[in-house]
Specification:
CATH class of the largest domain: Alpha Beta
CATH architecture of the largest domain: 3-Layer(aba) Sandwich
Subcellular location: Membrane
Structural class: alpha/beta
Distance between the termini: 64 Å
Family: Belongs to the nlpA lipoprotein family.
Radius of gyration: 24 Å
Protein name: Lipoprotein
GO molecular function, one term: dioxygenase activity
Shape: globular
Helix content: 25-40%
Keywords: Dioxygenase, Lipoprotein, Membrane, Oxidoreductase, Palmitate, Signal
Number of helices: 9
Order of helices and strands: HEHEHEHEEEEHEEEHEHEEHHE
Amino acid sequence: MSVFTRRTILTATFALGTVLAATLPAAAQQKSIKVGVMSGAEEEVAQVVKKVAASKGLNVELVPFSDYALVNEALDRQDLDANAFQHKPYLDAQIAARGYKIVPVGFTFVQPIGLYSTKVKSVADLPKGAKIGIPNDPSNGGRALNLLAAQGIIKLKEGKGLLPSLLDIAENPKNVQFSELDAAQLPRALPDLDAAVINTDHALNGGLDIRKDTIAVEKREGNPYANFVAARQGDENRAEIKTFVQSYQSPEVAKFLEERFKGAIIPAW
């Protein structure tokens, strides 16, 4: 076979491959995206989103984490294309501390935070000097303090918004003793405390039931802690990320949330 003939065949083969690729159905030309999520309940939801996205021609690789602090770090260093685990106060605190250029691109769900107890049945039953656990990160710690203030357990200084700290407690009539712990550790620490404010994902992972094991729950209406899909600044309009958001905000996901979590996790879109 001459060199000319071989070149002709190769050229024709390449051209045919190009034509075939252009005419393949969308499912065969799937684009991909890598998304960070928290392991447990949030990963369960994301698995449903992944199936919806696949029907739209998008392959989603889920990367589960067990530590909140690592997810934005991974997105920032481009190990992820997006993440779906956080609310605005948490992202704002992370940006202030670490300078991330990360932005929200679409709401997912809201998980009302709860005050859990295995020792008392109501807020009124909390004893003087009660030991209460709260998350040790600024956004979730502030969220916990606002819940306790809404229940009259403490009073906060005026104007502290969503990020109060223990230094912002103006009144503490029960002389509550606070234990600041990593959010994921609170379910395990609960037996040693009178109560603890626990994020819903960690509560579910710890076998707690928001309907049965709480003595107070955050309001759902107008809740500022709605979670969202986040991406690096400049990637907001990437087609893959838009498709992922659309897949999250789908009837299939809303139905799954209702049937699986029965009010513990509710749509925020």
